[in-house]
Inverse folding.
């Protein structure tokens, strides 16, 4: 039985929040095992995660089949919630 539809990964720069990002910012990389229950993957920057929780993001896009539309939906919602960070978002749907 599957409990999670989506898997969330956040990309964060090595700089403190509010600091200017330099070209030399560190990127933190994490690996996750994806099982057969996963319907999609959300790969997003701080601009998304600082204004919404994981489950909020999943609930917001779980009904959207088109990955491009789902990513745009998350980005627009982050802007509505007045994120202070840059927004990057990639949705990968699994068959």
């Amino acid at each position: 039985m599957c409990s999670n539809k989506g898997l969330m990964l956040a990309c964060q720069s090595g700089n403190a929040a509010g600091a200017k990002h330099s070209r030399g910012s560190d990127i933190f990389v994490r690996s996750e095992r994806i099982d057969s229950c996963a319907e999609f993957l959300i790969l997003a920057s701080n601009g998304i995660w600082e204004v919404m929780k994981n489950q909020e993001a999943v609930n917001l896009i779980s009904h959207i089949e088109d990955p491009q539309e789902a990513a745009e939906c998350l980005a627009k919602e982050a802007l509505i919630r007045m994120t202070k960070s840059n927004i990057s978002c990639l949705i990968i749907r699994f068959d």
